[in-house]
Design a protein that fits this description.
The protein is α/β, with parallel strands linked by helices. Helix content is 60%, strand content 15%. The protein contains 5 helices and 5 strands, in the order E-H-E-H-E-E-H-H-E-H.
C-alpha cells in the first residue's frame, strides 16, 4: 500500500509535531498488522521536510517498532534532494540508536 505524505497532512510542507503524528498514526496502524502488505511512504510533491516532522513520524516509528521488521516492510520514496534523504537517514539512525 502506498501512502502520500502530502495527502495525509493536506499540505506540501511536512513540518511540525502535529503533521508528523498524523503520518505516524497511519504508518503505525498499517505496520502493526504483521500480515499486511509492505508499506510505501511517498514524499511526492512535498516541498519541504523538517526535523520535527521526521522525529515525530519516522523517528517515533523506529523507536517503537522492531527496526528489522521496518527495514523489510517499509519503503520511503520520492525524496527530492540528497539533503532530505540524508536527514531522513540521520533521524532513523538516531531513533534506532536511542531506542
Amino acid at each position: 500500500m502506498k501512502y502520500f505524505v502530502k495527502n495525509i497532512i493536506k499540505s506540501p510542507v511536512a513540518e511540525g509535531k502535529e503533521k508528523g503524528e498524523k503520518v505516524l498514526e497511519i504508518l503505525y496502524k498499517k505496520l502493526s498488522l504483521k500480515d499486511s502488505e509492505k508499506v510505501i511512504i511517498s514524499f511526492k510533491d512535498v516541498e519541504k521536510i523538517d526535523v520535527e516532522f521526521l522525529n515525530n513520524s519516522l523517528g517515533t516509528l523506529f523507536k517503537t517498532m522492531d527496526k528489522d521488521y521496518l527495514f523489510s516492510n517499509l519503503r520511503i520514496s520520492d525524496i527530492k534532494s540528497k539533503q532530505e534523504l540524508m536527514l531522513i537517514k540521520l533521524v532513523i539512525s538516531l531513533a534506532v540508536t536511542l531506542k
